[in-house]
Design goal:
Chain lengths: 766, 95
Amino acid sequence: MKELLIQFVAEAGDLLREAGEDLLALERVPDDADAINRLFRSVHTLKGSSGLFDVQPLTRALHAAEDIFQAVREQKLALTPEMVDLTLKTLDQVGRWIEHLDQTEELPTDAAPIATDLVAELRGHFNRGPIEALVNSFASKADASDVTAALDRWFGKDAMAGAAKAARDEPINLVSYLPEEGCFFKGEDPLHLAMQIPHLQALGVDERSPWPALYDLNPFNCNLGFHALSTADRPELETLFRYVPTQVTITELASSVLAAATPSAGSGLILPAVVEALLREQIDLLELAAPAEEQAGRVASAARVAINALRFAGHSEEAATLEAAQAASLAAGSSTSLLGALAQLLRPEVASASIVPDQVTSTEASPSAPNEPIERAASRTLRVDQQKVDSLMNLIGELVVAKNSLPFLARRAEQQFGSRELGREIKDQYVVIDRIAQELQGAVMAIRMMPVGQVFQRFPRLVRDLARKLGKQVDLVIEGEDTEADKNVIESLFDPLLHMVRNSLDHGVESPEQRAACGKSGTAQVKLLARRDGDQVVIEVVDDGRGIDPEVIKRKAYERGLIDEARLAAVTDDEATMLVFAAGFSTAETISDVSGRGVGMDVVRNAVEKAGGRIAMTSVKGTGTTVRIELPLSMAVSRVMTVALGKNLFGVPMDLIEGIVKIPRSDVVRIKTSEAFVLRDRVVPLVRLTQLLDMPDDETTGEEIAVLVVRVNGQTVGLGISAFGEGMEVILKPLEGMLAKIAGYAGTALLGDGRVLLVLDLKELI
Amino acid sequence: MTIRRLGDTIFLEGVCAVEDAEILLQYLQAGADLIDWSDCTHLHAACFQLLLAARVPMSGTPANPDLSRWLAPILHSAGLTIQGVAAETLCEMEP
């Protein structure tokens, strides 16, 4: 891929994310000037850079969004939630296109129509295109002076005055008719249709796009749009346009609007753009220094052009004023009075009446963007391919293994070669290498550490969208986003968190009315908290919603067959809450697209447990629910305990182990084919690891059996083994290739003496 | 022939339909000073938009009152203003 495009894709990701954040910030605090400036700048920069590539639909969509943000920035437009939705949708779409660009170096084939739709939607809220502007100008509540200017441009003063007279203080209908470009091929004659408008009072035309040169003109492409004033009532007009209803907008205008547009109301002189440009040119001409003998000629010629232009535009009074000024100028031998008269005609409000092409306005705004110091460039972070860090991690893993072989070597030096001194020296060196290796390991772990904020930052948007969809008011509070954890842990966090937040919003948080009825504030609070607790990261999702009623949970669990009657009676309230995590549990009465399919919480539990974490839920009925996830800081290093089974060594994850005991063989109780023993007054089932692994039975006939007491799937089980090994930290590598299909093993690790340790996945085995 | 050319003037006569737009465009592209539409009874939108784009001055008053009432002001404001510019630019060179 081209270097430039790679850079663009990377930059676009950042800009889009920033734009999204600013947009949300802006929705909360509409007059946040910094946010809108940043937002505008992000979108503007992105649009600018996109121009370097052949991604026209993307550029167009961004341009339309940029126009909206610009209008918001200039306080011409108030940002409504609908507009936020729409612009977010646009940013999302752009994000998808960028992803597509990243993979294929081009936009998807359907980009053009999607962009057209998006632009049309965006322009619907706010627009500047010549023809769309007039069709939608009233729908988007353009301010009154614009309406006046537009009316005047379309119809001219005389026609307006006539129409106002005909309307006799009654409202009049403005019909804006924009035929399709290909309408001629359908046998339509839009002009004929426009002239058929009943009680037509004024007719004006507008071009869909600026007229091309005659040589480029396609005569069968309709470039016309029509505006008409009619005193006929709406049904009559609708009947006329019944075959082309989508191309017509009918707007009722109060007669006062017409009156304001007619000259008698004194709204100032409004000149056609061409005339205005002409007048300006004359001013420029007059302002140029000229020899005295040419002065008179110049004044005469400038005056003649200006007067003619004004007459053609139908402003004979102004033309007369200019004639007088010309005479005065000639008499005085200076251009001053003519200049003054011209300038008077071009007062600022006159200038504003002409339509300024939107390109001009956007270029005006652009200088502000490059002038800003670019902070991103100064960022001292390094983007490194994750694979490089992973391979570093693997190398350290090997170093740890190599290091662990030194004690073996020391023992050999002592025992086989009888050199105690050498053995001690090797041990000393081992301690040094061990320390460096540990620090190295810590440093690489730190590289892989990411702030939880990476995951949290996606939630403000999600919560906003969900809350709007559900019609609830929710305030999301995020705390501890700086808490760091391993990248894999962070990445495994998003899905569970998403489920939990969805559940909170859907089931936990009540509607504003219900909240008010309970005496709570209408806006609910959902908190995402993260903190470090020893070698664990604790994440909590806290809401102040309706909480969980244990009775309801119990009943639902029973109805769904998750617990039987005996259990139903025995379950405590705390245990009931945990039933939420059982597979197939859902309390929602109906399935919504937010949550409630009964897959939510057990998926959450599985995901968290897979990442080596734990999940718990507490809830107080009426005041809220807290879900707490505990995850290890890093998944790269696991603590295991080695156990011997005959001559084989196996690893058991340390976090599952509750204890180790040795029980006399005589204490093992046989219940049919199963075995059990009593541990602290409880009957604990005893499982022989040899049976689980289909290995030949242990032949040793000692007085006692070594039993590893583990807690798996919420049950305490005793695991019969031959002998205990030692606890150690290993770098667990998952089984790959053909071995990946073998169930029951979490992975492998290398031991210091070069042997392979198989680490058991007890959840699957038992 | 509803569209006819005589010297630098284009004549629009009778019903100027959509299929006449092509020949009108050819005439306009070749260059014309004036368009006479005195005898025009119907002007299709396709022809009308060419007149708008070309901005050639119109002469005469069409036979069809609808055309003269609604279209004449539009065409006059488009065509004549430009005509004024062209003429006066020449004047400017005189001194």
